[in-house]
Amino acid sequence: MKQQNIFSTFKNAIEGCGYFFKNERNGKIQLVAAIITVGAGIWLKISGMEWIILLLCIAAVFSLEMLNSAIERICDLVQPGFHPLVKIIKDVAAAAVLVAAIASVAVGAIIFVPKLITLLNGHGHI
Ligand SMILES: Nc1ncnc2c1ncn2[C@@H]1O[C@H](COP(=O)(O)OP(=O)(O)OP(=O)(O)O)[C@@H](O)[C@H]1O
């Protein structure tokens, strides 16, 4: 296999992103959730530090889901039939996504709930 330059590496990664968001159900759901979260961040005028934390959470969930999908593909390639080890591999990979997703929901709640409560109480200046 020939050495790739930085542009073809980048092109391959973009193709991987395209495949992920087009074909993976969870990827689509997470994309919608990320768009809603970013929209809420703009609407509620969250701080710079809150943006950094939120974007890291979004990136963590996307990245882990992409790795989870890649691991699932490898498993399906090498072991199309049922295998107890494949079950463990896929379940642990899915758990990695779940951990990041739960932490992200908690972070989202910590950032957004107080702002929404202030807004609903009529004290907010949006
Ligand atoms: N070959 C296999 N051998 C054993 N268990 C399997 C196998 N394939 C899938 N499983 C079980 O089914 C679950 C779902 O696997 P599948 O490959 O269908 O992923 P998926 O539907 O895309 O799931 P996810 O929502 O976690 O991405 C796995 O977590 C695992 O428990």
From TrEMBL:
Predominant localisation class: membrane
Known EC number: 2.7.1.-
Pfam families cross-referenced by the UniProt entry: DAGK_prokar
Transmembrane segments: 29-46, 52-71, 92-113
Membrane topology term: Multi-pass membrane protein
PANTHER family referenced in this protein's UniProt entry, alphabetically: DIACYLGLYCEROL KINASE
Protein name: Diacylglycerol kinase family protein
Lineage: Bacteria, Pseudomonadati, Bacteroidota, Chitinophagia, Chitinophagales
